[in-house]
Amino acid sequence: MRTNLSPKMLARAIGVSESSVKRWADEGAIRAARTNGGHRRIAIAEAVRFIRRSSLPVIRPELLGAPEVSEALPSGTAPGSDLGDADRLHDLLIDGRSFAARGLILGRYLAGARVAALCDGPIRQALARIGERWRGTDDGIFIEHRATEICAQALAAVRVTLDPGEGPVAVGGGGPDDPYRLPSSMAAVVLEESGFRAVDLGAQTPLVSLRQGVGAHAARLAWLSLSAVVADPGVLARGVDRLARELQGDGVRLVVGGRARAVLGRPRRGLFVAESMAELSAFATALVEADR
Ligand code: B12
Questions:
Q1: What band does 231 get if pLDDT is binned at 50, 70 and 90?
Q2: Measured in angstroms, how far is the CA atom of residue 42 from the centroid of ligand 1?
Q3: 22-52: b or e for each residue (b if 16 or more CB lie within 10 Å)?
Q4: What pTM was computed for the model?
């Protein structure tokens, strides 16, 4: 993605006249800065925010610095045309077509889909199908690694377009001994879309390191993804309990999710156990709004 655009480039990308874009900028519908020479410049995060909110289709994604979108969605990014995305994404991931797979996700995002919906929908479903395909064999491990990397790239491409400004900080990661990297990076992008500045400590984060990260960044929210089946669920559950109590004492909310979240057993004080990225998004948005 580019860092900023002229009104002419944005106009051509979305198929409107340059004068319309200039008028929207002057009316404040699009925030634009001025160069030393007095020309309007629109930050890419602002252009993407405007495109998504206005539901305008992107006709020439390459002008936004996202040529992969035309590869995946040759007819443009019309909103609401997402039936069958999980199947398409699955096929692209199986074939290792990273450019088109990234384009599909980025295109849906530009068309206005919430990050959480993309994560809980096509990405989760496509990967679940990939997991079923080689259940009980080692044959598909390279495909699983490659598919994970492609989805991580797509999430990173979405993330560079988000600008949470001076929002509160959230810190999180995957559980200790947990190799799964996507759930935590999804949480980071979902939180950035909700207005948090997210610091992702990645897979295999010891609980004590998560605690340190929260302190170092004066975070308001912490997340933990538990995806792997662990050798000693009791140890993990007690560790999360202690973490939740400590964070609660500091006024920090802890959200835990992931396929293995059931190890935590009964509901615990100071802990929000969520099933999906949509729940995380709703929780985070409410916190940001309460802080305003
Ligand atoms: C990719 C993959 C791997 C890769 C991971 C690469 C990496 N660096 O990330 C590798 C090859 C390492 C791997 C290893 C193994 N895997 Co694996 N793997 C997968 C696969 C295909 C995708 C995982 C993934 O990233 N999914 C995408 C994520 C985002 O989806 P999700 O975890 O469901 O998360 C969603 C929600 O749970 C929620 N959520 C998650 N975290 C959080 C956090 C918060 C705060 C919130 C609010 C919500 C939330 O939101 C997400 C989006 O909706 C899954 C299939 C599947 N169903 O997911 C199998 C799968 C998980 N693996 C499985 C198995 C068996 C293994 C191995 C044992 C294989 C082996 N023979 O060694 C090892 C074990 C590793 C371990 N220590 O646990 C099984 C697990 C079965 C079970 N009993 O749970 C699965 C389900 C495949 C299957 N159908 O059999 N795997």
A1: confident
A2: 39
A3: bebbeeeebebeeeeeeebebbbbbbbbbbb
A4: 0.95
For ligand 1, atom 50, the nearest C-alpha belongs to 276
Give the residue ranges of DSSP H helices in the chain. 7-14, 18-27, 44-54, 68-72, 85-94, 98-110, 115-118, 124-133, 141-159, 182-193, 207-216, 233-249, 277-291
Query: What residues line ligand 1, using a CB cutoff of 6 Å?
Result: 119-120, 124, 127-128, 130-132, 135, 141, 144-145, 148, 179-183, 186-187, 223, 225, 227-229, 255-259, 274, 276-277, 279-280
pLDDT of residue 270: 81
Task: State the CB neighbour count (10 A cutoff) for residue 169.
Answer: 20
Strand partners, 34: 40
The residue whose CB lies within 8 Å of the most ligand 1 atoms, and thus the one to mutate among 127, 137, 191, 214, is 127
- Which of 261, 262, 251, 254 minimizes the C-alpha distance to 283? 254
Distance 170 CA to ligand 1 centre (A): 23
Q: Which amino acid is at 40?
A: R
Contact 111, 77 (CB under 8 A): yes
Q: Fill in the amino acid letter for 45.
A: A
Residue 193 sits at the vertex; the CA angle it makes with 90 and 110, to the nearest 5 degrees, is: 55
Q: SS3 of 72, please?
A: helix
Indicate the pLDDT class of residue 200, thresholds 50, 70 and 90.
very high
Rounded CA-CA distance 107/76 in Å is 8
Question: Could you tell me the distance, in angstroms and rounded to a whole number, from the CA of residue 168 to the centre of ligand 1?
Answer: 29
pLDDT tens digits along 83-103? 689 999 999 999 999 999 999
227 C-alpha vs ligand 1 centroid, how far in Å?
A: 6
